[in-house]
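PROTEIN DESIGN WORKSHEET
SECTION A - STRUCTURE
LENGTH: 448
TOKENS:
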């Protein structure tokens, strides 16, 4: 669903271009995997080993296995996000030990694609399901005419806010970021809470807002592995970092890392008037205990504020997909699983009703039940119809770099410096640009 970059995380950096290369079929084995977390329904059928961490994965796997006699899923949770990626990277380097199918977040795909670690799914019927997804969802898993994963869930972004705070200070959901800043100043002047948070451990959010402003941090095409364009010292990036830096400096937003006990306590206690987040946030917040006490029924959601209302841009945070690895012994069966797992009605329905995922499949996005669902966390607001579905359908996709982990870590470090008053948005953008350019060159890329 989403990968939270932490300051202390280990950097699973991609090898230099000269060393790139995934596992080959000679390393693969046709032996049936036996370390399955789930029950195998049809023992005679071939098995496909899957690594995935969705919370309702056990139910999803059972749904698939009960519906198939020709192939069975053998599932194990190899870790969520970075721990799984590190294990996969180790298997790629060793040319053995990878699963047949792996759950990956969209912003991590290119880093594995460049190592030939993932299989193009087009020869196995990927384009047959293309119609089930929005333009942006499909772009996030594609490179040119190749498709390297089957989308499952996404994170169209919006603005969650406290209705009690907005009512108390007589403010309306801001339509622009300028209005957001004005509302933040009004609330602070009246002795109210901070308006939001500029946490350093969510660099994907900052990147999404940079893209919303018009930045294009990276231009990269897998058909031209050697060359990459890095553009992080542009005006759009500087504007976004300056905006949040000024908000932080004036005390209008907090500086806490998100997804922590203190941050959740702040959400519960009304320390933050807004939360810039994605469509999966209600499920996360509910699971973390938000909305169960006095604050129950006091949250609502509005469209994400825009930098320019005349040219609105929808952006995404998070989203996962199933990819077939190059070490899969039977790629056709593996593709059947990647394209069919979490794609049946029962699994998708369970996913969105339990708020485990925000589904990208149009069969759900256009269903009356999903469209008109009254979201309990938002006090019965029809958030899917009014906010999240339009945002997902308007999302055009993003271009990620082959070294997302390293990039996020450097952006995170710059945000820390901004929050500490040790650098400006302008300088942070320039320094970030230079760091990423230098790193790309050391990895063997030609930077344009």
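SECTION B - SEQUENCE
RESIDUE ASSIGNMENT:
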């Amino acid at each position: 669903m989403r990968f939270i970059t932490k300051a202390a995380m280990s950097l699973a950096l991609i090898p230099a271009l000269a060393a790139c290369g995934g596992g080959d079929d000679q390393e693969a084995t046709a032996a049936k995997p036996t370390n399955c977390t789930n029950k195998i329904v049809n023992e005679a059928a071939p098995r496909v080993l899957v690594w995935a961490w969705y919370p309702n994965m056990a139910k999803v796997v059972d749904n698939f296995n009960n519906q198939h006699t020709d192939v069975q899923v053998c599932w194990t949770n190899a870790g969520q996000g970075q721990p799984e990626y590190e294990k996969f990277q180790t298997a790629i380097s060793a040319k053995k030990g990878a699963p047949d199918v792996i759950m990956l977040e969209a912003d991590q795909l290119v880093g594995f694609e460049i190592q030939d670690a993932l299989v193009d799914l087009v020869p196995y019927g990927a384009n047959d399901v293309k119609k089930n997804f929005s333009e942006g969802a499909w772009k996030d898993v594609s490179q040119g005419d190749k498709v390297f994963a089957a989308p499952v869930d996404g994170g169209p972004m919006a603005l969650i806010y406290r209705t009690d705070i907005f009512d108390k200070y007589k403010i309306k959901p801001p339509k622009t970021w300028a209005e957001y800043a004005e509302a933040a100043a009004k609330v602070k002047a009246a002795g109210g809470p901070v308006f939001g948070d500029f946490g350093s451990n969510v660099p994907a959010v900052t990147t999404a807002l940079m893209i919303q402003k018009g930045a294009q941090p990276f231009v990269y095409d897998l058909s031209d592995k050697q060359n990459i364009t890095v553009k992080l010292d542009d005006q759009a990036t500087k504007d976004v970092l300056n905006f949040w830096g000024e908000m932080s400096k004036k005390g209008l937003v907090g500086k806490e890392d998100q997804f922590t006990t203190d941050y959740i306590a702040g959400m519960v206690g009304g320390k933050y008037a807004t939360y810039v987040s994605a469509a999966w946030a209600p499920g996360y917040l509910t699971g973390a205990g938000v909305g169960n006490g006095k604050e129950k029924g006091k949250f609502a959601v509005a469209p994400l504020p825009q930098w320019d209302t005349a040219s609105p841009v929808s952006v995404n945070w998070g989203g996962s997909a199933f990819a077939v690895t190059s070490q899969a012994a039977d790629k056709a069966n593996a593709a059947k699983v990647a394209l069919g797992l979490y794609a049946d009605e029962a699994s998708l329905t369970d996913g969105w009703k339990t708020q485990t995922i925000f589904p990208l499949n149009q069969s759900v996005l256009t269903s009356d039940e999903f469209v008109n669902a009254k979201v309990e966390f938002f006090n019965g607001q029809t958030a899917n119809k009014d906010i999240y579905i339009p945002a997902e359908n308007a999302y055009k996709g993003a271009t990620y770099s082959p070294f997302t982990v390293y990039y996020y870590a450097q952006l995170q470090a710059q945000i820390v410096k901004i929050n500490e008053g040790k650098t400006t948005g302008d300088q942070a953008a320039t320094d970030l640009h230079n760091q990423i350019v230098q790193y790309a060159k050391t990895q063997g890329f030609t930077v344009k």
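SECTION C - NOTES
The mean pLDDT is 92.
The longest helix spans residues 425-442.
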